[in-house]
Design a protein that fits this description.
- This protein is α/β, with parallel strands linked by helices.
- It has a single domain, classed as Alpha/Beta hydrolase fold, catalytic domain (Rossmann fold, 3-Layer(aba) Sandwich), CATH 3.40.50.
- The protein has eight helices and ten strands.
- A ten-stranded mixed β-sheet has the order 1-2-10-9-8-7-5-6-4-3, sandwiched between helices.
- α7 links the parallel β9 and β10.
- The protein is globular.
Length: 301
């Protein structure tokens, strides 16, 4: 179902009155989130924006920068990365925090959160702020664009890094920004809930590119996710208008897919690879969006 808010298109997936029903299955391949390891990924240091982080790269075709969610480059983030490679993209993953390949345990996640909260590179609580990590992502995107086919690249950010994908769109090489559950700045006040996650100058620059048709953005969130307030998407919608598409997955009590009220990771932890599953359908839309913007032919079934 589509509606208009701030001229942005909002698609709601998985409402209780829609036809998806959570199946009873013993198939572990469809009842758990996709996972992968670091096998086959090429690790090199990359310096950009005044900082150096390891970069993991694999694949062929148009480029996509995938910024890990907290706590880092986990097996579930790698599961998404492998899917993008299989769909025909060259994927570059910066590793700005955490230990690559480490399981996303509660203790490990809390340790990662405590580190990024005090880092000047991320400015986890600042409003209207320029974040140095955005400079690094822009440099990585420009480097990837120079080495891959297509008119430019896409950037995907998730959770803590969701907004960095849009901030990266200041750079002319970024044609598609995917913000999955963007939670920075942490929404502990109204000012932070409505904040787009970048400086006013960056937001204006992205909006100018969007008005010219040079960049489009896709935002994803669960309906009950307090870490990703609707107000933030409303701020972005008011600025970008038709260049901003929103997918909201129903996580309200009694939702058809059985999502918990705490559901958060749209493209990783909540994905179940079966047709009709709301997060699976959302991931399909992300791939289609990237193909549309990067002029990539669909892989043949």
């Amino acid at each position: 179902m589509a509606s208009q808010a701030g001229r942005a298109t909002i698609q709601q997936i998985g409402r209780s009155d829609q036809d998806y029903a959570h199946p009873m299955t013993d198939d572990a391949t469809t009842d758990t989130a996709p996972r992968a390891d670091l096998t086959g990924w090429v690790r090199t240091p990359f310096t950009g924006g005044g900082v150096t982080h390891d970069r993991f790269e694999r694949g062929s075709g148009p480029g996509v920068v995938l910024i890990p969610e907290l706590p880092g480059l986990t097996p579930e983030v790698l599961g998404l990365a492998e899917h993008l490679v299989a769909e025909g993209f060259t994927v570059a993953i910066p590793s700005p925090f955490g230990t690559p390949g480490h399981e996303g345990t509660i203790g490990y996640t809390l340790a990662s959160v405590s580190k990024v909260c005090v880092s000047a590179e991320f400015k986890a609580f600042a409003t209207g702020a320029h974040r140095p990590i955005a400079d690094h992502v822009r440099a990585l995107a420009a480097d990837l664009a120079a080495r891959t086919p297509g008119p430019g690249v896409g950037v995907i950010g998730m959770c803590f890094t969701g907004g960095f994908a849009l901030a990266a769109a200041v750079d002319e090489h970024v044609l598609a920004s995917v913000m999955s559950q963007p939670s920075t700045p942490f929404p502990v006040s109204r000012a932070r809930r409505i904040d787009p996650g970048m400086s006013a100058a960056e937001f204006d620059a992205v909006a100018a590119r969007a008005a010219q048709g040079s960049v489009c953005a896709l935002g994803l969130r669960f309906s009950e996710d307090r870490a990703v307030p609707r107000e933030r998407f409303a701020t972005i919608a008011a600025k970008l208008g038709d260049a901003f598409e929103v997918i909201e997955l129903d996580s309200s009590p009694g939702n058809a897919a059985g999502f918990a009220k705490t559901a958060h990771s749209v493209l990783t932890g909540e994905v179940r690879e079966r047709d009709g599953h709301p997060a699976f359908e959302a991931r399909k839309r992300v791939v289609a969006f990237l193909r549309e913007r990067l002029a990539t032919p669909a892989t043949q079934a």
